[in-house]
Design goal:
Layout: H1 2-15, H2 20-27, H3 31-39, H4 46-56, H5 73-80, H6 88-110, H7 131-148, H8 159-164, E1 168-173, E2 179-186, E3 190-196, H9 201-217, E4 223-227, H10 234-247, H11 250-259, E5 267-273, E6 278-284, H12 287-290, H13 294-304, H14 308-317, H15 323-334, H16 336-354, H17 359-373, H18 379-388, H19 393-405
Parallel strand pairs: 1-3
Antiparallel strand pairs: 2-3, 2-4, 5-6
Length: about 425
């Protein structure tokens, strides 16, 4: 057993291009200790194995599976983005989310629960040649995805539940200022979407839709980090176009415009046929009466669960306003009137109504409790998972007491 484990550790180390000194420094051991470990001449305790797994960004179970060494998503990310190497905050954030995702995958395997991303929802796309093509691809896939899900053109009320129904885990985590969210896509662990938990509800909804677009359109990338400073990247442009079209479908937008009595052409014409001849009737619409106002955009934003700014850009892309009109409305949106309008129509009600639930933490908690109840993991491991999911273990202890004793704890009992 020691020999096989040692060979597996060596296989991981060489696969990722690390030296024995690298691993020794991480474990606070000598290089000779690592050499003896890899030869199978030295025992590896559970704590050391856990730390070795952290070093390679995998689960301890990976060392006991007769499978190829998995490609580490975190290392791929920082190899492909050298400028992120020194971004400790982002590295810790992605690393923690990746570890949490893998823990969930391991728990599901332990409990024999089927999981994983349905490969039929992935779209094979070429990398767009320019921004125009990126937008076209994003819009087209959004329409196709709505048809596949049989959503029609109605607003999406439970976006997180919709995404999770496709076999994708979603989570929320405090992120660096420049990052709105990221996806992790691994064959062994599955697909995970994380967004910044500090953002307001409407912003998180857009981020969830944006990252969902990355999962189904960029399945060849193990990690996709959405950074605000890289919004003009072609794949980011495509994901943004997807999110806008997915949340605000063309037909739904057109229907809402009609209900507001707006969007009619400057001249309308109908012909009435009486059996022998036709009568042409014309109507001229006053331009100022048909123009979209900021409060119209706010009403539509509330309906679709997006920000006023997102709604304005969508209206421009659907040709309901000119570039000059968009610029004017954007200035109004950031001004005195826009501030009060957001307060009236968007701020509290919308964020409360659209603040997507963090189902991922509940999933971690549920799986950890069940694995502990079946004696598949220790109490210490269960509490470690609770802390990793950033849940207060004080709230968890009564549940563990109940599991240990097979009864519901009364208020006068102490765990």
């Amino acid at each position: 057993m020691k020999i096989e484990l040692g060979k597996r550790i060596q296989e991981f180390r060489k696969r990722f291009g690390n030296t024995q000194d690298d691993l020794a420094k991480w474990l606070d051991l000598s290089r000779a200790s690592i050499a003896q470990m890899e030869l199978g001449n030295r025992d590896v305790d559970s704590v050391e194995l856990e730390r070795i797994a952290d070093f390679f960004g995998c689960s301890p179970l990976a060392f006991f599976k007769d499978e190829p060494v998995p490609v580490d998503a975190l290392r791929i990310l920082f190899r492909a983005n050298a400028d992120l190497q020194d971004n400790t905050e982002l590295r810790v954030c992605v690393s923690n989310c990746l570890k949490l995702g893998r823990e969930v995958s391991n728990l599901r395997e332990i409990l024999d629960i089927e999981s994983g991303l349905d490969p039929t929802i992935l779209y094979e796309l070429k990398v767009p040649a320019n921004k125009w093509e990126a937008v076209e691809q994003g819009n087209r896939i959004a329409e196709q995805e709505r048809r596949r899900l049989e959503m029609g053109h109605l607003p999406i009320t439970d976006l997180v539940k919709l995404i999770e129904s496709q076999g994708i885990c979603t989570g929320q985590y405090e992120m660096p200022p420049d990052v709105s969210g990221f996806t992790l896509l691994e064959k062994t662990s599955g697909a995970f979407i994380f967004v910044d938990e500090e953002h307001p509800g409407v912003r998180k909804r857009f981020s969830f839709a944006h990252e969902y677009g990355h999962v189904i359109m960029d399945s060849g990338r193990a990690v996709s980090v959405s950074r605000i400073s890289e919004s003009d990247d072609l794949l980011e442009v495509r994901a943004n176009a997807f999110a806008a079209s997915f949340l605000i479908p063309d037909e739904g937008c057109q229907e809402m415009i009609r209900k507001l009595g707006k969007g009619a052409p400057s001249r309308e014409e109908v012909s009435v046929y009486d059996g022998e001849d036709s009568l042409t009737i014309q109507k001229r619409n006053i331009r100022s009466e048909q123009s979209i106002q900021l409060y119209d955009a706010a009403r539509m934003a509330f309906y679709f669960g997006v920000s006023i700014r997102s709604m304005l850009y969508r209206l421009k892309n659907l040709d309901y306003m000119t570039r000059a009109e968009l610029d004017e409305k954007l200035r109004e949106e950031t001004g005195y009137a826009g501030t009060h309008l957001r307060h009236l129509m968007m701020e509290k009600d919308t964020n409360d109504r659209l603040d997507e639930p963090d189902l991922f933490r509940l999933t971690v908690l549920n799986l950890a409790f069940e694995a502990y109840r079946r004696s598949e993991i220790s109490r210490g491991k269960c509490l470690e998972l609770v802390r990793l999911a950033r849940i207060d273990e004080v709230d968890v202890l009564p549940i563990l007491y109940m599991i240990d004793n097979g009864e519901v704890q009364t208020e006068d009992k102490e765990p």
